[in-house]
Specification:
The protein is of the alpha+beta class and about 80 residues long. The protein has helices at about 25-40, 70-79, and strands at about 10-15, 45-55, 55-65. The protein contains two helices and three strands, in the order βαββα.
Length: about 80
Amino acid sequence: PRMSTYTHLAYHCIFATKGRRPFLTTEIRHRVHEYLGGTVRGLNGIALGVNGVEDHVHMLFVARPDKSVSDLMRVVKSQ
């Protein structure tokens, strides 16, 4: 009999604006969060939640086991 493997890797990442400046105003915050979630989905991940305040963002996402978190975050933060 073959054994199947199921992997579910969920991550909570927090990253701040440069110098923790309050750049993410109410007017643009929602669009930034949508964009970040779309970037995660574009990398075949699942964005479970993206939120934050003026100077930092929280992301809860599920990543494929063939993607390293550092590679995924490099792409997310460089977009």
